[in-house]
Every structure is written in structure tokens, then in C-alpha cells.
Structure of Pyrroline-5-carboxylate reductase:
Amino acid sequence: MFNKIAFIGAGSMAEAIMTGILAKGFLQADQIWVTNKENKERLERLKNVYHVRCSTDKEQIVQGADVIILSMKPKDITEAIEGIKKHVTDEQIVVSVLAGVSTGYISEQLEKNCPVVRAMPNTSATIGYSATAIAGGKQAGQEHIRLVETLFQTIGTTTVVEEEDDLHTITGLSGSGPAYIYYFVEAMEDAAAEAGLKPEIAKELIIQTLVGAAEMLKNSDEQPSALREKITSPGGTTQAGLETLEKYKYQEALMACIKQAAARSIELGSPYQAKNDANKLK
Ligand SMILES: NC(=O)C1=CN([C@@H]2O[C@H](COP(=O)(O)OP(=O)(O)OC[C@H]3O[C@@H](n4cnc5c(N)ncnc54)[C@H](O)[C@@H]3O)[C@@H](O)[C@H]2O)C=CC1
Ligand SMILES: O=C(O)[C@@H]1CCC=N1
């Protein structure tokens, strides 16, 4: 399906995606080409660990790639596109995993008619468990979106959204989401340690509790609130715990967290809106 994929940006997200692709055998290592801004040591490491092709020669990276994955920070998008645009053709699919930046801006900077697709994965891609949301830009047809879905399905699930602007909320929800879970686990570990539990015992119990709750959410027809109520015996331990969370406004804090992350996505993308962007922020 794809003969060559080019990553422009060689950071943690690019690494997570390429790890997933390689683990699934979707592409061979020598079909994955990677470049970054100027960190040759980092490219050398990726080459040694994953046996992918690394180069600082942008033409060599981009030429003949079926898909070009933009995976730099939003602030670097303009310079990165400047570095590759003369090598990009209308036949290539450009995929951006950048928070906030619109497909319209990317098309405008590329000065090409190639399809641009925006994807928001998360780092669980590393083990094939990303929840990736995808939205097509103006030049992207259903066939391009489907091809991009096929690619991202190697690193987890894909969900196509009609409204590109929904990706801001999604970034705050599932793009950043794993970090909130890890933060939550840090607190559980600290609480266990303070109470004198051995870290390895606590870790095993915490992880299985998370996996079990996730599987319940996935497999049960019941709402999260109903599942919660089943655990909460009147006057019991769970009630005591939940009341404490309520006292600390836990739900309010989490909702504010997701809203703030989404607002930050809008903010990060705001310098990079296309002049004539149908997807311009309302
Ligand atoms: N880390 C995460 O969990 C997620 C990140 N993202 C998005 O992925 C993107 C990358 O994030 P990370 O991998 O965490 O960042 P990172 O800082 O680890 O990596 C960024 C990479 O871009 C390269 N770069 C910078 N300027 C460049 C240029 N002009 N030409 C070529 N390469 C250039 C850097 O050298 C570096 O290799 C961001 O836009 C972020 O919004 C999306 C979903 C999840
Ligand atoms: O923190 C960030 O900006 C990126 C986007 C989603 C996850 N990490």
C-alpha cells in the first residue's frame, strides 16, 4: 500500500508512531525515512535502534514518499515546510500530527494541491494502543482519509471527525489524555508508598485496576456512573474516598484540565491560520 513514509521531525511522537508501524510489520524499517532539524545524534540513535533511514537531506527524505508525516512542534511548522516544500508533489499525502495547526495553513505554506490530513494520536501508539482522531483538509478526499486511517490503524484505533476544529477538544481529551492518567497513577503510587505498601505490590494492583476498569468501560453496556455506583457501598470505603474527591473538586478540576488543554491547542494554532481558511476558527 505504501512504499515509503517520511517523518519530518524525529521526536517522541514520530518515534511512537514508527515503533507501532514496525511492530505491526506494516512497513519494513528501510521504508521509513526520518529527518529532524539538526540533531544528528538523535537520528543516529533512531537508525541504530529501529534501523530506519535517517538523513538531513530533505530532498532524499521527501522524494518518492507516499506519505509525509509532519511531526515537529507547532512553532517549527513554517520553517519545516519551507525546508521541504520544493520537493513535495501533488500526489503525496501530507499528514500533520501537530496540535492546533490547521490543514489550511499547511496547504497554503506548501503552495501545493496535495491532500493534507490532520491526525491527533497519542503516545500509546508505541504499543499499538493510540486513540487517533483524523480530519481531512480541503484537498483530502475519502480515499486519502481511508489511506491515512489504514496507516494509523497500525498504532491503534482511528476515529474520523467531520469538523477539523473538533481536533482542539480531542487534543485536550485523548492527545494529552495519557498524561492525566499517568499523573493520576503517580498520586496512587505516592499514597500507597506513604501507607507503607511495597512499590512493586502497589504497581501491580494499580495497573490491573486501570486495565480492569478500562475493560469494564469497553465491554459493559452500563454508564460509568452506574459502574461507579456498584462499587460504592453506602457508608463504605468508596463513598469515603469519593466524598474526599468531591471535597477537592476532582471532577471540576478534570473538566477544567481538558478545557484548558483544548484552549491551548487553539492558542498554539492561532498564529498558523490560513488566510482563506474554510476551517478558520470561529
Ligand atoms: N508527544 C505527544 O504525546 C503528542 C504530540 N503531538 C504533536 O506531535 C508534534 C511533535 O511532538 P513531540 O514528538 O512530542 O516533539 P519533540 O520535541 O519530541 O520532537 C520534535 C521534532 O521536530 C524536529 N524539528 C523541529 N524543527 C524542524 C524542522 N524545521 N525541520 C524538521 N524537523 C524539525 C525536532 O528536531 C524534533 O526531532 C507536536 O506538534 C505535538 O503537538 C500529537 C499527539 C501527541
Ligand atoms: O502537549 C502537547 O502539546 C502535545 C499535544 C498532545 C499531546 N502532547
Summary: The chain has a mean pLDDT of 96. Residues 8-14, 35-37, 39, 71-74, 76, 79-80, 83, 97-99, 120-123, 175 surround NAI (ligand 1) (CB under 6 Å). The longest strand covers residues 130-136.
